[in-house]
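Here we describe the complex-level prediction in full. Unlike the single-chain runs in Section 2.1, the two entities below were treated as one system.
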Amino acid sequence: MAGASSSPPLTRPSVEAAHEAIKEHIHCTPVVTSQTLNDLASRPQSPTALLGTVFEGQTPASPRIHLFFKCENCQRIGAFKSRGAFHALSRLTKEQLARGVVTHSSGNHAQALALAAQTQGVKAFIVMPTISTPSKIAATKGYGAEIIFSGSTSQEREAMVEDVIERTGALLIPPYDHPNIILGQGTMALELERQVLELIDGDPSLSVRRKDSTHTDGGPTSNGASNTRVGSSLAQRSGRLDAVIAPLGGGGMLAGIATALSGTGTKVFGAEPSFQGADDGRRGLAANQRVTTVKTSTIADGLRTPVGEINWTVISDKSKVHGVFAVTEEQILSAMKLVIERMKVFVEPSAVVGLAVCLYNEEFRKIVEEEGGEEGWDVGVVLSGGNTTLEAISRMFATEDKEAERAEGKIGEKGERIAENVAG
Amino acid sequence: MAGASSSPPLTRPSVEAAHEAIKEHIHCTPVVTSQTLNDLASRPQSPTALLGTVFEGQTPASPRIHLFFKCENCQRIGAFKSRGAFHALSRLTKEQLARGVVTHSSGNHAQALALAAQTQGVKAFIVMPTISTPSKIAATKGYGAEIIFSGSTSQEREAMVEDVIERTGALLIPPYDHPNIILGQGTMALELERQVLELIDGDPSLSVRRKDSTHTDGGPTSNGASNTRVGSSLAQRSGRLDAVIAPLGGGGMLAGIATALSGTGTKVFGAEPSFQGADDGRRGLAANQRVTTVKTSTIADGLRTPVGEINWTVISDKSKVHGVFAVTEEQILSAMKLVIERMKVFVEPSAVVGLAVCLYNEEFRKIVEEEGGEEGWDVGVVLSGGNTTLEAISRMFATEDKEAERAEGKIGEKGERIAENVAG
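The structure predicted for the assembly as a whole is:
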């Protein structure tokens, strides 16, 4: 990997340094909470929801979950990818920058790299398949990048990238498989930690652990310094998130968060779609071997890639990532509907897999029930991006049409038609 | 109108008192800004956009507009209506409350009244047409209201309300035509004013008038008190919004905002759909007479009602409301797409008519160009609610299907099919 040898180690201090380097260029995205979603997550699933799963016939888990949503859909370019792109560029020398940067992506990484390059006054070459949607091509061009079209196989795209590098000397900035990308994405965890503490300070009822009883040693008559001390000791004791769950595709974000939170006591989990084997991370952990190729058309289109090599070293480290769980296409759509309609926050399908795990993955819910006990868990959930369109939503949620087609036998297995609709 | 005689006068102090009365029950909803939307609003329309209008052939207006969005879609029950409902109840005596409240509505007012009644431990009877969508019935029931079904004509609904009043002694809380409702809705304007000042204080570039030059008399070395004074004199001089624009249906919100901002120097405007005569407010002002009946199936379903009687007394007062402008169904959909896809904020069609006027109504844009001059205008835009579903969105934005149908001649006049889709 280009430049990997000059990258800092994958540690929390490196993530802190990355945050210092990029914070003037990125948004500190909002953290929001929802009583409705807390209630839904803390209600046992119906026994019928468990039919056909290994949990069929068992009493549904009854975890208590309070959710804190990190809204990376409000990040620049509409997704967390800006963090990694700005950080990768911040690590380059002037000489390297002068040669420009290149990547192949038709998604959020393309726009993120184009924006970061434009901000630094650097040339960006983006290799995109000819069949990319016009809106994504236009958005990437809008940030001043030069688009180079290729065929749609990975061989064709990589050959075109090689060609650009040979011709221009541009440096490859990969979408996820690089320490600087991992460290950049991890910066969201530092913000999330601090924002959750502030939120709970302002309204203790947001946490599963109300702080009322601990206020005896520092009432409103104490001076400022004493209050501050109480505040910070509280923070360490009860303001810390019990868990953070993030979508897992190539693994830049999950490895970054796990690096940032390593040793803090907050457990880190990954979430994947299960459709057509998109849960390569989960399967890899089970087999103790990274899955290197995935072919899936899950609606969570940001999560169709296999976990990267460097990312895998973090994600397969049990002291850093505590588990990866998968959800179905229907569960993703259902979580997406809740976030958009109830919270009024517009997200893309890939963004909600973490919430879908909290709501519908019985294995995860049993862990929260057992480990959280009556008190429960405060869980940070990353909403990773919001780059979809109302037309794409139309294809996902035109249920009346779909139900009619299902009745006519045009839809076979569950989910198949959904992916087809989205790809179309 | 029940209880109208005991209502406070329609003045700013009455709105301030209303805010005191309800603020513990409502959310102070966020105010957000968007550079992308500012850029779009400040770019002249293309000459082709003016074809077929009275502005055809003229140079498109070139106003400078900075937008401040008041997100009432994040209000309790998902729309501003909670404000009026909580205020109306706060004005009732214990004896009146004990008899319960009643209204007829299948929309946001039903849920708002149900929530306010539940909060006060009061019985709410909601008369709804039998044909109401199940999700709305369920949501209203969810707040503990008793649903009473009626036929769908206004005569049938009103007869059923009379029946409930006779049977239970419940008090009618109308959706908009009442001073207490008007005063309640007006409270959002007080929050908006304060929030915009705070935002501009934190980042002067948000305003069309940067404050940089005025900082000379109170630098960072001044003491706190002096800084505060400078801050507040600045606020009066350059932090005040030039205009606020809000959707106009029955007129509770617009009359409330106009009441709150009367005499402040901020101009207040209304926005309506033009489809099938839904612009009854605009037409009434032109004819100097309130339009009392409207029959339209505009997608902005919250704005299908004529302006109420009491509301009209405020809205027709030129010192309070400075104009009402209308937009087409296509312009509403286009504004909705921008708010959802670019700002990631989920809104219902009625919510975006104010933004649509800023972007597409050439008459309004010429006013901003002339009155705002090179400096431009800071404009507050109310996003009134977010109660729609992804299925409804699917029907509005299934463009591929619609385009195909249009090619086949199945869609006649522009817009007609859209309304049909949504109603269906």
